[in-house]
Amino acid sequence: MPDLSVVGDEGTASSVVEFDYAAEPAPLAEAAMTELEALVCKAEEATRKRLALEKDLSRAVALERQLLDREIPELMDRLHQRSCETTSGVEVRVQRELRASLPGRDREGERAAALQWLDDNGHGGVVKLHVVVALPQGEKARADLLAAELRDRDLDVEARQDVHAATLSALVRELVADGKSVPPKIFNLFDQRSAKLKRKVQ
Questions:
Q1: Cα–Cα distance for residue pair 124/102, rounded to 1 Å
Q2: What is the model's pTM?
Q3: What is the domain count for the chain?
Q4: Strands 90-101 and 83-85
Q5: Is 163 buried (19+), middle (13-18) or exposed (0-12) by CB count in 10 A?
Q6: Average pLDDT by consecutive 10-residue portion of the chain (202 residues)?
Q7: 3-class DSSP state for residue 90?
Q8: Which residue range is the domain that position 107 belongs to?
Q9: Based on the number of CB atoms within 10 Å of its own CB, is 102 exposed (0-12), middle (13-18) or buried (19 or more)?
């Protein structure tokens, strides 16, 4: 390795070693390699255990959903009960979960029909108009202008209507509770009954 000579405070030359950082590192010591081997084996075993637990969890979730979402509600139907208490002290209550959303943008015809239905049936207030403007960074002030003004300035403007899924779901639940019908073909409707269990504290 080359030496770099520098002059000290008293005028004497001293030598500074220039390290070659591109040189290959020294081989790992035998003890370090043994430790690395042990850590790698532990990591592989941890991965195997994680995968096994994830598989068991997936099976448990599927069984839970089968019992709570299908078998128990079906049995409660045969009993003509929405809620009851078992002999072991578990309160069983079947609840209805109703969710709705607009069709995706790849189904524009159905989406437009859903928006039109909301408007025709007096629920247009849940529909929000979003104006999307393509602007470079730092042009926030221009984004506050009206869509017509933006078009006059030759800016790309996308105006679209949308309804938040939570808002639409709440509206559909309200309509169903009032005995009113909602056309399932133009909305994404999810109607699921699920059993809720609560064991009494002894």
A1: 14
A2: 0.54
A3: 1
A4: antiparallel
A5: buried
A6: 49 56 61 90 97 97 96 94 92 91 83 88 86 71 68 72 86 87 83 89 70
A7: strand
A8: 97-195
A9: buried
